Amino acid sequence: LHCDFILQNTGKSDLIIRAVIPSCGISTGMPQINTLAPGESAKILADFDPRGRSGEFRNAITIITNDPVSYKQYLIIEGYIQ
Prior knowledge:
Layout: E1 2-8, E2 15-22, E3 26-28, E4 35-36, E5 41-48, E6 55-65, E7 72-81
């Protein structure tokens, strides 16, 4: 399963992506651009490997930024594997 997430800076100053931390079963990496000017966006790619799993799943990617109020954001991948 492949997911593309778009992270957009809606603030008034540069947003710095400090870390991208996947939970178990997800592979991802830092976006090509880690400093976003106001209005800019970056794509975060994620792959989930369902092999050997069944039933409901809910995994997250934690994004750490320099935002003084909400420095931690979560990207959620959830579903059901038959």
